[in-house]
Amino acid sequence: MGMCCARCLDCSRHPSHAPVLSPVSPQSLPVPYWCQGMPGCRCPRALTFGGPGAKPSYLDRVVQEIVESERTYARDLRSIVEGYLGKIIDAEEPVLRPEQVSALFGNIEDIYELSSTLLQNLESCANDPVAVAVCFVTRSQEFAIYTQYCNNYPSSVAALTECMRSKVQARFLRECQERLRHALPLGAYLLKPVQRILKYHLLLQEIARHFEHKVGDDYELVLEAIDTMTCVAWYINDMKRKHEHAIRQQSPSSTRGTRRRCWSGCKDTGGAGSRV
Questions:
Q1: Within a 10 A sphere around the Cβ of 274, how many other Cβ atoms?
Q2: Residue 25 class from Cβ within 10 Å (0-12 exposed, 13-18 middle, 19+ buried)?
Q3: What is the pLDDT of residue 263?
Q4: Model confidence at 118: pLDDT above 70
Q5: 259 CB contacts (<8 Å, ≥6 apart)?
Q6: Domain assignment present for 276
Q7: Where in this chain does the entry annotate a coiled-coil region (predicted)?
């Protein structure tokens, strides 16, 4: 197989130095003591972290987890927008009624656009935890769109339940799932934005917990990012509690009409979320 750098003695005996990268995660591969990150070295560790055989710190792994999980999340959102919503819109014969589509997907396209932009910003941070924190601070107002999505989520669940009772609609959605090769049905993917928005502040807290210098402007930026995303999560959870309480207070005879007014009113409060 040949030597990949001047200090590698025998690549055939050391798979981690093979010129063709292994599908195994670079973080899990050992770095032999003779690897010094020489020019032209194809060692997975050297390629990934840029340092001379540097082992990633826990903080490095936290930052990588934020970026990688956002990449997966953006891919999942794209599958909803293109693999389900797009197929419904492009269908020759209407499969779902317009009100069903609106209730089912809410503002998922806006969520996907925000996640895609955020991912681009995160990927340009070069594994810098402070730069990652800044991404959330500078886009704090934009996360208000999650309030609308989360407010609509109960209607989305109801719409999906209705679709699954229709043989035609249920078959269409299953065919979309098969084309996407998803192991989980649409409902599991529609839940992801609700789960994701409530996780950001937890990931940022991990950055703060393992930040080397817990003083200074850099650390303050990390704390500001945590405060920003914690407020977003708190607001959404508070709205969720209010919605659930309102539904419990409804009498069976007035549930349908009152619920429609509730969702409409909750969407109007989305503007308040933009102040978070």
A1: 13
A2: exposed
A3: 36
A4: yes
A5: 247, 250
A6: no
A7: none
